[in-house]
Amino acid sequence: MSISAAVASESGGLGRVASGELDTTHGAVLYLEDISVSFDGFKALNRLSLSIDVGELRCVIGPNGAGKTTMMDVITGKTRPDEGSAFFGQTIDLAKLTEAEIAHAGIGRKFQKPTIFENHSAFENLELAMKADKRVRTTLFARLSGADRDRIAEMLRTIRLADAADRTAGLLSHGQKQWLEIGMLLMQEPRLLLLDEPVAGMSDEETERTAELFLSLAGRHSLVVVEHDMAFIAKIARKVTVLHEGSVLAEGPMAQVQADPRVIEVYLGR
Amino acid sequence: MAWRWERAAIAALLVCVAAPAAAIDKDAVAKLGFGDSDEKIAAMGALVKEGDPRAIEVLKALADGNLQTAGERVFIQRDDDVLDAVTGEKVESPPEDRDDVVANNRIRAAVGDALAGLRILSPERAKRLAAAKELTGGADPAMLPLLQRALAAEKDPEIRSLLEVATAAMELKTGDKAQRLAAIRRLGASTSPASRTMLAAAANAPDADPEVRAEATKSLAAVEGRLAWGERLGLAFAGVSLGSILLLAALGLAITYGLMGVINMAHGELIMIGAYTTYVVQNLFRAWAPGAFDWYVLAAVPASFAVSAAVGMLLERLVIRWLYGRPLETLLATWGISLVLIQTVRTIFGAQNVQVENPAFMSGGVQALSNLVLPWNRIVIIFFAAAVLVAMGLLLSRTRLGLFVRGVTQNRAMASCVGVPTARVDTYAFGLGSGIAGLAGCALSQLGNVGPDLGQGYIVDSFMVVVFGGVGQLAGTVYAALTLGFANKLLEDWSGAVIAKIAVLVFIIIFIQRRPQGMFALKGRAVEA
Amino acid sequence: MRRLYGPAGWSAIGAAVLVMAILPHFLSSYWVTLIGKIMCYAIVAVALDLIWGYCGILSLGHGLFFALGGYAMGMYLMRQIGREGQYQSDLPDFMVFLDWKSFPWQWWNSDHFGWCALLVVVVPGLLAFAFGYLAFRSRVKGVYFSIITQALTFAAMLLFFRNATGFGGNNGFTDFKRILGFTVTSPETRAALFMVTGATLLGTLLLARWIVTSKLGRVLTAIRDAESRASFCGYNTVHYKVAVFTLSAVICGIAGALYVPQVGIINPSEMSPANSIEIAIWVAVGGRGTLIGPILGAGVVNGAKSFFTQAFPEYWLYFLGAIFILATLFLPQGIAGLAQKLGRGRA
């Protein structure tokens, strides 16, 4: 175990955890073990166990009510598990950190509905999201360095918004807004991205381009994508996890999962 | 006490009151008319000694400036009639030029004592009661024997207790030690606030006998214990009364805010309009049905509801519905409306307060304890508020409109999807909330002044109740109104009205920061607009 | 160095400065005082625009900070009356009237201008900091926040109405004689105060402009538009809101301090809830989120108020009420927004 990771575990998650302390020496970036969550008697997650490797692009599917969103809530700290453990890397115990600390540690989440800053330009949206010292005083006197501008320009290219840089974000198309939000997420240099129905409402062409984007991101980042669009999943998935009634029903490559009789019975029914 | 010796002189003479004679002493009356101040006072003593109740009329006339002389005769001017002072009979053709008999303050004070002394033995209970109250307030100790005689003859318990206090007070001042101790013990058994004052003075008197002081302290504790109950109950009543008023004022706001997220700054003015409607109804009754005047309240209740509801619905249709979803703008726009409404009322009715009288069955109060009077108007309003609350509750839970209102409050989009006519529900709900405000105004008109600024005094309080109680459930409003009513009165008792108000406001500011959704919020309802 | 204004903007500012500099020589005392007073209001309007137009915080209690600054300056001015009051005592008249023998604690050192100037800044600032921190930390927003700011100013007004509080009760402070050695009512002093107010207004405008064109300004508008998103991006929104709220309050305090020597009186009705709501309408009429708009709004509404209360006093409230209603219904962008739209239409 590295020294910084030891410090992190000693402090019990009370202090700020910088993303440099993420320990992935064992190859897994996210461990969920026997997570259980209930709301008012209804068991949303039932002994869920899952692990994501570094650089992996994992798809999570399942019928409504299967617990996909609750699982994401547990990972990002919005909901605390009643039982079980959730670790980011070897050492960062997610159950002990606040939402802001988890975001700071390197987990980024994109919600289903695009929330960007509608009155700012695409460029400004990325500028605001950019990883930087975000205290009040520093922000007041902040100047964009040349390097910063380059990074933003690079990101605009990645998310295919280079020629819409100065357009007010509220005027972008739905798909473009989704990409902008992904861009904003990436500006924070997260190690793990959680994407909740990223292609909902997109056209076929936009869906295609989003798939290309995700494939290019995998490796440098780890991604967990929750989706219903099977064609999209087929394009990007290496490994698929099927959730049902709060726990993992099946896991494996797309073809294997699609052929699994339990999955067919519960969900796919094609 | 001013003019001590004159009053002592009268008192001495009062002691020798004899049975009433056939006619009042002519000489005494003449002295009253023509003598100087000393002679007047001596004459008063003589009249009192006679004990004739007709002397009361003469003495009163003297004090009021209605005693007149012409030639050698003395007259009393009563309204348009002129009476002979001695016989008390009306004079058919009185002399034209009559001189007024002047009475200065000294004379008037002496007259006061003389009258009390005469009245304490009057056959009429009301007069004896009035006289007893006056004497309890402080009279010359020389009157003591007279009072003791009156006490011996008195059968009415209320008057007896007053006389006991009066005599005890005098004995405290003048009696020997044994008499003083006895007086203190008697006072200790009383329940009158006046005795408390006297016992407190006796207990703290620096130069008194230690045994007397000890006894006084004991009696004081006994009296205070008894009085404390009255005070506690009085406080509780005041708290419930204020709570009922706050409830009426805030209920309408809770509905409009709960339903539409509209903070209606003109809510106070809808209350004010209800109060003015009551005023108008009162005037109509006075002009067209004076015999049934007392029943004007029964007509005023639906009238104020209707008028305020109409104004509210008009506002909703004309202004507020265009600002749906923009609560801050709604706040500002409704503030503008409130200014217009205030000025309109000022233009129509004038800037001064207008008079709204309580009907007879709401005037006065019930004497629950010796130091506790519960006013009828407040009692009626507490029941009224409860009735309105019950009616609201039934309307919301049993009627179709109520169902729609609840549905739209909880989930507007869904309600619209299932066919609830949300726009019309908005209008009706706003009308309902405004109507209740009108009822609050009707109630307020019975309690205090009615002026164009009436609403301004209640707007902040109404908001505090809504914010504190949480939105979406009537229970929250009820608890909040009662809690704030009590808190306000308790603090007021402790530290004065202004500090109480400030403390309550600060408390709510802090409470909201700890629990932004209020006491009872519908689950999941956020505080942000 | 980024541009605060383009050439057109700077020329307009330059012209305004020129006009303001020579105006006092041509106008009577009445007009100098009136315009000076309106400029103080304009400063407050800019301060409110900073938090409302740019950060979405509608404070309906800003009149309180204005009044607190005014009272701090008022204390100094009362001390400067010296023994020339009605009772010829070192204590102000109202204290003698209440039979007090010495100054209450808050009057300590109030005969020093420097100390009172410090109070002008520190008292509103501290109050805003504490209140804002508590409120924003608890996520109190929107109308609820506006309501509790009303409650705050109402409570303060009640407090200041009490004689025991030591600020002159419902009469407040008045009958000032001197400021920094100069006679308060002389034309030269009035002109000087006028200039200082004008300079402060300009300074406030430029400071606000500098802030809103910086990255901080963009963060503020981000917080206004989507607070949870901004928080998600890693900005501690509570810190930002508290910072801008405190700054806004301090500016109001300074405006209040300039206001009091010009109008010659300060009393608790400056803290009335109605006053603070009027400030919001200046900003709304002028145009939220434009900085210049609120200055216009303050000018237009207060100018109209002056006119009406003299010519048609019974109609003033109708007019004001109508402005509120019409501005919110038909002019959501205010006058400045309207001007922009017309300008764009023509171009």
Describe the structure.
The complex is a heterotrimer of chains A (270), B (529) and C (347). In chain A, helix 4 crosses helix 6 (146-158), helix 4 (122-129) runs parallel beside helix 7 (174-187) and helix 6 (146-158) packs across helix 7 (174-187). In chain A, a hairpin with a 2-residue loop joins strand 9 and strand 10. Chain A has a six-stranded mixed sheet with strand order 6-7-8-3-9-10, sandwiched between helices. Mean pLDDT of chain A is 84; it is low at 1-20. Chain A is α/β, with parallel strands linked by helices and 270 residues long. Chain A has helices spanning 3-10, 68-76, 99-105, 122-129, 136-140, 146-158, 174-187, 204-217, 230-236, 254-259, 261-268, and strands spanning 28-39, 42-53, 57-61, 83-88, 92-93, 107-110, 192-196, 222-226, 239-244, 247-252. In chain B, 68% of the residues lie in helices and 5% in strands. Chain B contains 21 helices and six strands. In chain B, strand 2 and strand 3 form a beta hairpin. The model of chain B is unreliable at 16-22 and 523-529 (pLDDT under 50). Helices cover 71% and strands 2% of the residues of chain C. Chain C has helices spanning 7-26, 29-52, 62-80, 93-97, 113-137, 142-161, 187-212, 215-225, 227-232, 237-263, 273-286, 292-311, 316-330, 334-346, and strands spanning 173-174, 178-179, 182-183, 265-266. Chain C is globular and about 65 Å long. At the A-C interface, helix 3, helix 4 and helix 5 of A face helix 8, helix 9 and helix 10 of C.
